[in-house]
Amino acid sequence: MEVIQLLLGGLANGCIYGLVALGFVLIYKASEMVNFAQGDMMMLGAMLALTFVNHDYLGWPFVPGVLAAMAVMGVLSFALDKFVLRHIFGQPHFAVVILTIAIGFVIRFIAGVIWGHEPLSLENPFAGKSLHFGGLVMGMEDAAAILMTIVLTGGLYLFFSRTRLGVSMQASSQNQIAAYYMGIPVKLVYSVVWALAGILATVAGVMFASKGTIDPSTGLLGIKAFAAAVIGGFGSLPGALAGGLIVGIVEPFAGRYLLAGYSQIAPYAIMLVVLIVAPNGLFAQMIKKKV
Amino acid sequence: MRILFKRSYGVDIRLFADWQTFAWYAALFAAVLAMPFVLDDYYLGEVTYVLIFSLAGLGLMLLVGHTGLVSLGHAAFLATGAYMDVILIERGVPFILALPLAGLFSGVVGAIIAIPVLRLTGIYLAIATMALAIITEDIIVLAEPVTGGVIGLTTPPIEIFGLEIDRYGTPKLFFYLCLAVVALVTLFYRNLLRSPTGRAFTAIRDSEVSASSLGINVAVYKTLSFGISCFFTGLAGGLLAHYLGAFNHETFLIITSILLLMMVVVGGMGSIHGAFFGAIVIGLLPPAITILREYFTALTGIRMTAIPGLDTGIFAVILVMFILFEPMGIYGRWLKIRTFFQIFPLYRKNMFRRQKTFLKTERMR
To answer: pLDDT tens for residues B7-33?
Structure first.
């Protein structure tokens, strides 16, 4: 019983990590840029949602408020790619790493100036409610997080396999030049991918802020989501989600069964082991070059 | 306008290009030597801080700028050096042995870690080192009997041949101590770059495939580079311990690693000067902001409250600007200015234009 309860708690957290990791992987798959600012984008999305929804600020109803935050984040991420990251397109990966880390710092700083450094909580319709099955208890916000992740994953799957834009995204990630020759506006596609990642980050942020509190340094959670993405392998969307779930589920178990202090190392230790054993992640998508 | 005639191959790897260059560096060194007599103790402390950080930057520069391996976890080796130094001194080892031993320990640890980690390339390497740094933070807390856990350690004063050196008691002596270490390491670094080993590092940075086809054992040289880099950083950690007086695991958070890397990038990748420039920016930014704020208040009468994280924010903005508009950092800009004057009427606008580059995918092997 206790095991299942721990599993349920981990599942919800894992979904949030998975969504942030999904954002990493989306961008990496499309443009081979690693967006270290994804965690900070999550924080910013949550802060925006909080501004629209909370009664101290605008006090909109929950759903329109969150949708507005998603739209704003989409536009911001689109602009970020179009006006900042486009400049260093084709530069070594290293430049992108530093640039996105720096952008993350800037986002964190701006959020600190606007919203202060006190932990804030998002007012949401799930608070205080819980589901009971048998002897198991599950917070309503946890259930919402899991449901939301399932819906989003399904939606993304359909988007990538059925829509024209989704297929052209796949094409540009597989071979830039060939996609360009086929008349796909590769640059535009990249910016749209960034917008999508921003929207995903907002959803993850909203769920995170419903479950607990956020402050500008919450963005550092991105590092944990990073571990998730690495465990899954950077090139694979289902892998990212699986990695997120692994990290999310391992955490409560490590907290329960390992000595205090060792538990927080667990996700990173798993990640290191995965990196050393299978350097491209558990769900690698590497193509051997034929000469 | 100055012309350097090359009459032998040796000219290319001379320590100083000509006597004028030597004179400039000698003048710089003399100016730094004279600093304790000009600056008051507060500013001398800041300069010492800059020196220590340039030492750490030199370590990272060797790895990132000259071998092309990105590490996001160098704070871990800073920590290794700092803890090892203090632990050795507490066990009765004299400082003059403890500091090099701490650096050496850090270097050996780095080289051992490097063996499995260096199988990774590019982005995965950066992530793995980052994970190592995070794990190190926790290990420090867990290893409480040696490291003092959350409370941390207090640094005992330094004693060299009966001469007591303390950061607050005798800041001038501490400054000279740091300067001596930094000068020695810089000289070592410069000579390393002139040697076959250093050129092997650069070859690996530019192309691993061509380096190995020229007979360079890539794995060995990468490990060596990681080890030397961690050695430098460990030395910096030892000095930092004495500078801070007391420290715990929170001194060496992941942010410190990131800051170190940013420092190297702002300074200018692939140049010894870059490490110093970056450290100057990072070390002198907080006092500069304070001074500017006071000036602003005096000018307008509006009292500006201190904004937390302002210096990091400003630094990040500076960094973004550099990556977008001057990827070679401050040193790159300095090179352009110097070239402009050296070949005075002949400077053309496109002399430093960057080559067009294309994305080299890491998914194909």
So the answer is: 888 887 788 877 888 898 999 999 999
The pLDDT of A255-269, averaged and rounded, is 78
Q: Using CA atoms, how far apart are residues B261 and A102, in angstroms rounded to an integer? A: 11
**Mean pLDDT of the A26-53 span:** 86
Alpha helices, H only, B143-271: 144-147, 171-194, 196-206, 208-213, 218-244, 254-267
Q: State whether residue B262 sits within 8 Å of chain A by CB.
A: yes
| Count of structural domains, chain A | 1
The whole-number pLDDT of residue B62 equals 93
Domain assignment of residue B231, yes or no: yes
Q: Is A189 exposed, middle or buried (0-12, 13-18, 19+ CB in 10 A)?
A: buried
Answer whether residue B107 is part of any domain.
Answer: yes
Instruction: Answer whether residue B126 is part of any domain.
Output: yes
pLDDT value at position B61?
93
Q: Which of A106, A235, A265 sits opposite B317 (nearest CB)?
A: A106
- Complex ipTM value: 0.82
What domain range is A113 assigned to? 2-218
Q: Which of residues 94-113 of A touch B (CB under 8 A)?
A: 94-95, 97-99, 101-103, 105-106, 108-110, 112-113
Q: Report the pLDDT averaged over residues B69-73.
A: 87
Is A289 inside a domain boundary?
no
Contact A275, B124 (CB under 8 A): yes
A141 within some domain: yes
Q: Is the pLDDT of residue B361 over 60?
A: no
Query: Looking at residue B353, what DSSP letter applies?
Result: P
Residue A282 near chain B (CB below 8 Å): no
Q: In terms of C-beta distances under 8 Å and separation of at least 24 residues, what long-range contacts does B147-150 make, across chains too?
A: B147/B83, B147/B87, B147/B249, B148/B248, B149/B248, B150/B248, B150/B249
Q: Is B233 inside a domain boundary? A: yes
Range of the domain at B155: 38-265
User: Is A257 contained in some domain?
Assistant: no
> Is A280 a residue whose pLDDT tops 80?
no
B75-129 pLDDT per residue, tens: 999 999 999 999 998 888 888 888 999 999 999 999 998 888 887 777 778 888 8
Q: How many independent structural domains does chain B possess? A: 1
CA distance A32 to chain B (A): 7
Question: What is the percentage of chain B residues whose pLDDT exceeds 90?
Answer: 29
Q: Does the pLDDT of residue B365 top 50, yes or no?
A: no
Residues of A in contact with B139 (CB under 8 A): 265
A251 in any annotated domain: no
Token pair belonging to B364: 């194909």
Hey, are the CB atoms on B361 and A223 less than 8 Å from each other?
no
Chain B residue with Cα closest to A279:
B120
